[in-house]
Design a protein that fits this description.
Shape of chain A: globular
Number of strands of chain A: 8
Oligomer: homodimer
Largest sheet of chain A: 8 strands, mixed
CATH class of chain A: Alpha Beta
Low-confidence stretches of chain A: none
Largest interface: A-B, 28 and 28 residues
Pfam families (chains A, B): SnoaL_2
Organism (chains A, B): Spongiibacter pelagi
Protein name (chains A, B): Nuclear transport factor 2 family protein
Distance between the termini of chain A: 32 Å
Order of helices and strands of chain A: HHEEHEEEEEE
Domain SnoaL-like (chains A, B): 10-110
Chain lengths: 123, 123
């Protein structure tokens, strides 16, 4: 595990997704955070809306995999990763770059997920 | 080469860096674009400042390599890549995620390069 708290948060996030561990994911967020996934949709604001979002996200079996080093610039951590959602008869793969912006306590205050139709495929 | 104009711009950008081809790089930008590299530094605004920046960047021998798929969300293209700068006696490697934001003509109006000390190493 990394000693850099922002990289550690990313590692815990990926692990939390793979474990469908809602508490682990939510513990990374500040109470007044926003989540925009994908970028271009209406951001979800606050812990209740974020909880609802991740409850939905982990309702299917998810595998998440970091696909390269976490890039750190000031309060931002950006990282390439892939998501596989197993719906039983079919699976969906999405290539994503997430941008986490942290507050001074290293809690995520803004998450933006960059992906679109070019980045998702059913199999 | 990709048919998506934003992905094509990224491919041409990487190629332009490898070829030290200033014209190819600058042709991707709108006249009033901004370049913030790395994020957290003062953005360079306008073609003169951007030309100066890339003249400096390609003054050493650069190799750039796309390290995963280009993520497209609305007007944004984000992509993980690596840069190797050859200074003769030493080389510097940097892992970067760039965010290009395009105008309606698919010219870059904003470039942000996310990387920091965790992402660069001399060898």
């Amino acid at each position: 595990m990394s000693q850099n708290p922002k990289i550690l948060a990313v590692e815990n996030y990926i692990q939390g997704l793979c474990e469908s561990n809602l508490d682990k994911i939510l513990s990374l967020y500040a109470d007044d955070a926003t989540v925009e996934d994908p970028v271009g949709t209406e951001p979800r604001k606050g812990m209740a809306a974020i909880t609802e979002f991740y409850n939905m996200a982990i309702s299917s079996k998810i595998t998440a995999k970091l696909e390269g080093p976490v890039r750190i610039a000031g309060p931002h951590a950006l990282f390439p990763f892939s998501i596989t959602m197993d719906f039983g008869e079919s699976t969906m793969n999405i290539d994503v770059i997430d941008q986490f912006t942290f507050n001074d306590d290293n809690k995520i205050i803004s998450m933006k997920a960059f992906w679109g139709e070019e980045n998702s495929r059913m199999s």
